[in-house]
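Ticket opened by: R.M.
Priority: normal
Category: complex prediction / small molecule

The reporter submitted a protein together with zinc ion and asked that the result be attached to this ticket for the collaborator who will pick it up next week. Submitted input follows.
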Amino acid sequence: MLLIPCPWCGEREETEFHHGGEAHIERPKDPDKLSDEEWADYLFMRKNTKGVYLERWVHQYGCRRWFNVARNTATNEIVGAYKMGKKPPKGAG
Amino acid sequence: MVDPYLRQSPLAHLHLDARVASDGGLTDAAVILAELPHRGQLLLRGDTGNPTFRDAVEKAIKTGLPTTAGTVSGSSKGTHIIWQGPDEWLVVTKPGAEEKTKKALFLAIANQHAAVTDLSESRTVIRITGDNAREVLMKGCSVDLHPRVFGPGHCAETLLAQAHVILHQTVAHKTSGIPTYEIYVYRSFAEYLWTWLEDAGREFGVKVATA
Ligand SMILES: [Zn+2]
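Result attached by the on-call engineer:
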């Protein structure tokens, strides 16, 4: 069981959250100009990092806010959590 | 708004008023439960960083918005505001006062990027108090409710026995420190949570009180 530090509510149990996959994937500004391959890359291709990974979580049964977490996928250690639009903590990603 | 004569608590079929009468003589119950039905509940959204919005709300309902996560402002017996998120609050009123409060808020936030939605009847409120009230909640809730971090005026939206709830500690008894919590639970989960609370409290002795 992870204890996830919500930037608003503080540490809460993992069951209150949902995972939202890799963070910092930006929607292409002009999708019409993309090739099928580029579009598929945006839609489907994700990193599979062993180590510190930047991912999105939502505090579903708390404040219902989305935010980012830097988590080590090998050890489950959480390096830090940060609000959307902010930079990851030092030493992460 | 549901016409008052059509209103029914989701716990009505448990006939808690009969339990109040039969439990009246219990003196050693360390967990005391009550339902506080039909409270007005208005969801308020707006920009917490905007003083125009904050001032308009405060002026309209005489209660300032809590801007610290996990806190409640106002009077727990009258109108109060529960923090639900950085731009989201639950304005709670006495039963029947929601229409007036909603209108006041509507007028106050008109022309602003803000919203108020009447969610009264979506949840009911269960009050729990007594020597072992906190122990009962601890059986099904991972939020730290120790008085050093969670006291009167604190709230948390969380899971209690897997049910999605808002917990609000209204008071702690002046001398004994015994806490009183109000649990906001969606009406479809209310019977489940009530029976879970009775079961979890059984070892301490449970009695049902009036609102
Ligand atoms: Zn949160």
